[in-house]
Amino acid sequence: MSEGGMVERRNPYLILGVPFGAPREEATRAFLRRTKSLRRLGAAGHALHTDLTGALKEIEDRPEPADAAMTPYRVPADPDLERAIGTGVFSPPPETLPPDVVPRDLDDLRAAAAHEYLRHLVRLRAQRLGVPAP
Amino acid sequence: MRSACDACRTPLDPPDAGPARIGRVVLVGNRLLVRHAVAVAQRRGAVLVLDRTDDPTPLETDRFDGLARVPLPHEDALGAAGRLWVAGRARVDGSLKARWSDAAVRAAAVRTATASVGARRGAALDLVTLGLPDEPGLRLTASELTWYRARAAARAGDTRTLLRLLGELPPGGYPGRVHLLLYRAADLLDDPGLAERAAALLEPFAAASPDAQALRAALRPGAPPDAPDLLAAFAPVAAGDDPQAAAITQAITSGGPLPGGARSSGPAMRALDTRLAQLAAARREPADLDDEALAAVGLVAERARRAYLDGDGERLGTLATADEAVRHYRALHAFRTAGKVDAAGLRPDAAETVRRTEELAQRFTGRRVAAAEVAADPSTWPFLRANAIDEKITLTERLRSEYPRFAEWLALCATRTSLRDERWDEVAAAAERIAERTEADPILAEALNVGAYARWRLGDAEEALALLDRALATHPVEAHAVNAALVAAGVPAPRGGRAALPYLATVTTLTARPRVRQGAVEHAIALWRATGGGPDYPAVLASMVRAALAEPQEDDEFHRTLLELSLAHDRVWLADAEPVAQSPAQTRTARYHIARAAYAEHPSGDTLRGAAAALVAACRLDPRPDWTGVERERLVDELDRALDAAEHPANPAPAIAVLLAAELFDLRQQLTFAARAGAYLAAAAQARGQMLSAEAERRLVLGPLDVYARRKAELSRRERQAVSTVLAACLRAVATAMVNVAVTRNNTLVALWRGLDGEATPAGPRVLARKAEILDRLDRYLERCHPYLKAMEDLPVDDDFQRQVRDVLARLTAMSTRARRSIA
């Protein structure tokens, strides 16, 4: 308990430097990347290794989905900040159809609709004409 | 004479019906002797009629017109010759009384029919109408007569005959046949066999007649390729200047949506309309089109984009490689999944951006300066995250001022290293700087989020909460509310964990995922319980629980937790609630908790029975839920209280009956609860001056005594002793109630008896019959009491009580016997 009340003691995602909710594979990659450079730190490296191992285990053991639990503190808060925060080459806007491209079946559909309406108009004309004079 | 046919030189005079008066039958003579006369010719100012003889007699026209007219069959459809033929037939069959001869009328008909070409044609029509054979005197061609017969068949709706007769006409002649066929278009369009024959007949006229051309095309089974052109040509002919027909035709032939409420919008028109709408969307905003629609309009690029965004390499692989968009998105997919740059596949305007991204995304030592292509494109930034966190990416001053958002993003990433190393002051300061500079809401909100964490770790929870409140207001996402709840939960008393509840409620409204909502509600419940729970159930928690029960829950245990909480703290609401249930287990669990809430709010025999029935339903689930064991014990305790309490508001007997019928009790409970319920009901009946009903007596008293006698060996010695004690006490209570009622009733019956003794004829048959009835009733009461004497023998009922009962019954029986003798 600190002056301001209870605070989070450790946050496994922040320790490993991965975003909140990162998949286990990403956490493992971060762990390997961080531990590679620890040997040269000696005893301090040992302590840090212990921290990292604990953080990785915590992520590995967490229940799924991670965000169903209301702990730990989430950084970043908005996952979109990690994925894409705007459109561009890797997050392209919708593609549209050029005006000169026409569906292949459009002529057939048009002919079928024209035929259908022609039949309707023929019936209509027959009703209007009545029986012809001899 | 009119013009002649170009082909056969036949004059084209139209049929002539002849003078209107000729063939008219009128009444002549006087009142006593009426005759029928028929007009056969007409001269200046006079009408010649056949009257008494076959010699025509002149009548002034005015006088003729004033004579009464005799109607003839088909008269309105016939010309002059036809009327004469009909008059002749009427003369023959006797329906006209005339002195003139049939031959004289026929001769007049022939004269009329052959007066001109037009008259001949008119007469021919009359022959067809009347179904008469050809009249050689008319000198018309066989084809012309066939034509008239075809027309008659068309009018009669005989389309098969029409086609046969038209087939007998010269192939290129009689163009009027097009209209005859058109007149029967409905039949032809509905019958492929007729349609084929009609199409052949129309062939010679298609070039010159728009009707023939349109009808022939319409009769085809499938749409001809030139159908739009045919429609465009025929629409003005068929529909004139009808604006809707013109608009529909325009839409079909030239594109564009069909007018609203288009007439005759059949499947083909709807299919075209759908495709045109898809096409319009594909060109403007394809977001609402599904993959099938995109495939239909040929928008392969969007299909490839979506597959790429979904990370679905397999789907990308199914699309045509020939399409440049497919190659482009495959290359992006390869870069995203394997970090490979396929420059040949990428679109030229994207290739450099991807290459620059790859330079900054790969692992490298030292630092690299970001390229403008990357700074300008936020979609590249996630690839740089690891190097940005390690602060390996730098910016030139020019790019920093040109792309401030990228600079802020890099600074935000850099705080991650400080967070990792727990340099809270640095993190707080950096976050504050970013928050001051940025104009992008997501970056501002994240800076506030990171700054809040640092403030929290520095011990300033109030400031951390203030920052998170601002983040929520700027960019409301669920994680800001989760973080705020986390911070608020640590705030010391008196607010304590309850300060987190409003934030958790915000989580439930911001998230779209049920699992996260469940997590927030569970956390809120746990926090509230951790603060001691108690009667002050927070309104915000009640709202969360009610909302959670109003939506489907996958987790049965969570669902029950919500119900239990509501039962304990929100039962007024629960008693009338209709929680959503996902499974039979949830349905029955909810039903039980609602029934309990209803009983708690309105205790009565009905609501207690409702709770018992709901528990029985829950116990029948397979597997039986664990919680039903505890609830059964709770219910048994409640039944105990109701049976023992002098003034309990609920009659427990119906609930006990439900549980007995469901066989939820063990043998000991089954026997004792039944007997206690019997004693309870017997006492209640006695209070009403009645005996326990025979059915309840059998089910709750005498039946259980039989069961005890048969199965007591299944009970342990101690259980046997306990059960027999309860049964004895209950039996004594029931026997007391029954005998008391018998005695009371006996007193009433004695009073009745004495009243009968005071009647004028006390030995009369009516009085004796009434007395017999009184004794029958007394005997029935005594019969109900006698089994108890036998039942008490096998149970530890004290002897004094048994003797008292026996004495009372013996006394009453003896009295009944004496009385019966007195009236024998």
What characteristics describe this protein?
heterodimer; A: 134 residues; mainly alpha; Helix Hairpins; B: 824 residues; two-stranded parallel sheet; 40 helices; 65% helix; 4% strand
Describe the structure.
The complex is a heterodimer of chains A (134) and B (824). With 134 residues, chain A is mainly α. Chain A has a domain at 8-75: Orthogonal Bundle (Helix Hairpins), CATH 1.10.287. Chain A is built from five helices and no strands. Chain A has helices spanning 12-16, 24-36, 43-61, 80-83, 106-129. The longest helix of chain A has 24 residues, at 106-129. Chain A is rod-shaped and about 115 Å long. The N and C termini of chain A lie far apart (110 Å). Chain B has 824 residues and is mainly alpha-helical. Chain B has 40 helices and seven strands. Chain B has a five-stranded antiparallel β-sheet. In chain B, strands 6-7 form a two-stranded parallel ribbon. In chain B, helix 11 (227-239) packs antiparallel against helix 12. The interface between A and B is large, with 78 and 130 residues.
Q: What is the compact description of this entry?
A:
With 134 residues, chain A is mainly alpha-helical. Chain A contains five helices and no strands.
* Rg of Cα set of chain B: 53 Å
CATH top level of the domain at 8-75 in chain A?
Mainly Alpha
Largest interface, C-beta within 8 A: A-B, 78 and 130 residues
Mean pLDDT of chain B: 91
Cα gyration radius of chain A (Å):
34 Å
Low-pLDDT residue intervals, each spanning 5 or more residues of chain B: none
Query: What is the strand tally of chain B?
Result: 7
Portion in beta strands of chain A: under 5%
Break the fold down into its secondary structure elements and pairings.
The complex is a heterodimer of chains A (134) and B (824).
Chain A: H1 12-16, H2 24-36, H3 43-61, H4 80-83, H5 106-129
Helix pairs in contact in A: 2-3
Chain B: E1 25-29, E2 34-43, E3 46-50, E4 57-60, H1 61-66, E5 69-70, H2 80-93, H3 102-113, H4 117-130, H5 142-156, H6 159-168, H7 177-183, H8 185-190, H9 192-202, H10 210-218, H11 227-239, H12 243-254, H13 267-284, H14 291-297, H15 300-309, H16 313-318, H17 324-338, H18 348-361, E6 368-369, H19 372-375, H20 385-389, E7 393-394, H21 397-402, H22 404-420, H23 424-437, H24 441-457, H25 461-474, H26 478-489, H27 501-510, H28 514-530, H29 539-549, H30 556-569, H31 571-575, H32 584-601, H33 605-619, H34 627-644, H35 653-661, H36 667-687, H37 694-711, H38 717-757, H39 765-793, H40 799-822
Parallel strand pairs in B: 6-7
Antiparallel strand pairs in B: 1-2, 1-5, 2-3, 3-4
Helix pairs in contact in B: 2-3, 2-4, 4-5, 5-6, 5-7, 6-9, 9-10, 10-11, 11-12, 13-14, 15-17, 22-23, 22-24, 23-24, 24-25, 25-26, 26-27, 27-28, 27-29, 28-29, 29-30, 30-32, 32-33, 33-34, 33-35, 35-36, 36-37, 36-38, 38-39, 38-40, 39-40
